[in-house]
């Protein structure tokens, strides 16, 4: 007779180990088996890619999984996301390139994680919690049975063994075993590739800048090495990420339509590619010993389904993989594992329904797909500093104001609460599609706006406030959360107004007079196609006007202009009297 477990997790990587840790901390009386090919100790420094977290994913590790002490002592606190765009005159010198980042650490902590060290620690915790962790094991097959137990067969010490289980979880990464077996795989649109390597030593971006550039070195109080640094170009970005205590990860991410993978799919080709695109970085890389080199083609994908009432699930890279530009991988693991714990709870209570599983599938897959599409459509203008900066601010408003609070306060797990929040944000979905299209058209043109450094905390107090207000501790009153998201929706609507007016001033100045007496528009009709404005209803807003002068001034302060012409500047909304309400 085969052995039996309540849950078998096939794969002991980040997603699988996090799930095992989460379930061990829950009150669920479950027998759990984790199967993985690798044995401890896992190599540190140069192990798996995926070092960078952002605030929501870090919250999952720190609070949900209770790993704050380990992260504080063994890994680096992250100094936010940082972007160096191309200089308008093509100067490669870092001090001449527009910079978007922060000077100080953010209110909510995030971390740069050494995956080997982190996963070693998780394995130890899982084993100590009494979970059956078997290493050096190869999963051979999974037999699914809706009416009875599933069976998992695996090779251990040269012998094929099997285990029966009520739930089976595929956490085997890009092998995507269950999705292949069930024909659930779906590609993301386009082809996007990556190659990366780790270097022994601290490759600091500020070391690319001479000490004589006092202004550059003085405007950031902390060590830029601690950031997830991005060097931006048309169709590509390059990450420079630190790993404690003395390792640096460097990677290329690019749109294959603009930068074919064959141009950088070996280390030698990568160095030639970098010498052409980022010569100063290429020169600096040669000073450090190479630890490894890896690559992946067509890294993003999605799925038709990742959870089932037949008691199987796919998590981590076995489920979906969003574009890594915003470091959202840990966020998606948090959402998926949160849903899976809830599915297990409902199953034990005999309350697992098709409707709830459909909600879980829809939420995670739609989030993955929306993030990926939003990012991928920005690749052609990644070098356009003003436009990409405003798009990034737009994305931060959306993430910090609407998505992250649902994770912090676990509203996504309740279909009724999620539906109520979706109702508040329904107009935002339409507006977001319009804004992404507008950014694409704007990004394809040369902007007259200029900036040297934007600190997205210090220079954007409205965004900072939005960020702080959504953070834990958990608020038990859903009405509070609904109010917070409703207010975030109002701030997002106001930001859309401000950005649209800036875009018109920049690339359609001849149309400025049309807004002299219309300082409040219908954000669901935004576009840079003047012929559509009347028919789309741009001049017929569906919400009451609000005073956006303070936000307008806040955003405008970020930029100068090459050729300012006050005669075409859009009118200030001084005649708007209604305050910030919906």
Low-confidence runs: 565-582
Helix content: 25-40%
Please report the number of helical segments.
16
CATH superfamily membership of the largest domain: FAD/NAD(P)-binding domain
Shape: globular
Number of beta strands: 22
By CATH, the topology of the largest domain is FAD/NAD(P)-binding domain
**How many domains make up the 3D coordinates?**
3
What's the story with the biggest beta sheet?
Answer: 8 strands, mixed
| Beta-strand content | 15-25%
Class by helix and strand content? alpha/beta
The CATH architecture classification of the largest domain is 3-Layer(bba) Sandwich
> Radius of gyration from the CA trace?
25 Å
End-to-end C-alpha gap:
63 Å
The CATH class label of the largest domain is Alpha Beta
Average pLDDT for all residues: 95
Written account of the structure:
This protein is an alpha/beta fold and 582 residues long. It folds into 3 domains: 3-47 and 114-184 and 301-354, FAD/NAD(P)-binding domain (3-Layer(bba) Sandwich); 77-111 and 189-296, D-Amino Acid Oxidase, Chain A, domain 2 (2-Layer Sandwich); 428-568, no CATH class. It has helices at residues 14-25, 55-64, 68-74, 115-128, 177-181, 214-218, 267-277, 279-285, 329-348, 354-376, 385-408, 415-443, 461-469, 478-507, 530-536, 549-556, and strands spanning 3-10, 32-36, 76-77, 81-84, 99-101, 111-112, 132-135, 137-143, 150-156, 159-170, 185-187, 192-200, 228-233, 236-243, 247-255, 290-296, 301-303, 307-308, 312-314, 449-450, 453-455, 560-561. The strands form 5 sheets. Strands 1, 2, 7, 8, 9, 10, 18 and 19 form an 8-stranded mixed beta sheet that branches. Helix 1 (14-25) crosses helix 9 and helix 9 (329-348) packs antiparallel against helix 10 (354-376). The chain is globular and about 75 Å long. The model is unreliable at 565-582 (pLDDT under 50).
